[in-house]
# Entry
Amino acid sequence: MRTLENSVSQMYKAIMDVAERWRQSSQHSGCLNNFKAYLAKCVDDSSESAGSRNLLMVALERFPQMTNFPISKVKTFCEKFKVSMSKLLADVRSNYLQETLESSMIDERERIWKEIKGCQAKCPLCGSKCSLWNEHTDHECAHHVFPAFHGTRVHDLNHPMFDRCLSTDAAERSWSRGDDPFLPNLAEYLDHYDDCRPWKKSLVPDPTLPPLPVQQIGAWVNCRKPLLKYWNLVDNTPDEWLIYQSKKPLEEDECDKAKARLEKYRDI
# Structure
């Protein structure tokens, strides 16, 4: 883009220089064809630099086909012509600057937003987002939650799944999607589906997995009612977890309320 702007700028300056020389060499009157003929003469003039001749050649090839208007005052015509060309040149530079800034701002916004939102892939067990933001082929997540938050359930019992994604229990359990047949373990399940395969390297048992985090237990206990309703699950929350229930846990209609609020804001 910068090269194009420089070329146009040089062409405009070369044409303005030709107009000034024609003014100095012409009589008090003339016509448009006289100016075009002088432009052609400059193209053929060996004393002109090669770069200038090339630019003038382009200008000559693009000289508009129009009526051969008489020019009663060559001096006035050339002065007005140079003013017009200067304005066009200023417009080119201004538009270039504006377009460059707008393009740069758009590119920067897209780059920053890409870094902020990161990878949009989600863990097929718990639904937590991939924590990588740069280019990658294998997904991984730094903060898994109970699969129950994502609606993952224990088959046949319809209980919420509390086996953590990196646990041995999750790795050895049979898994299924929708009405598909069950696969004997997590590795085969992940390998079976294209969108799950990039998670295969990271969703393996972690021997250093710490005890159940109290924060997740408390989050589940206090949010479980609307989630159980939303995912149509049968509650089997361990009794010993209920000590983490707050005085005001979420009621089961909270998801409906949130959906209604979102619909309301969407219509604004």
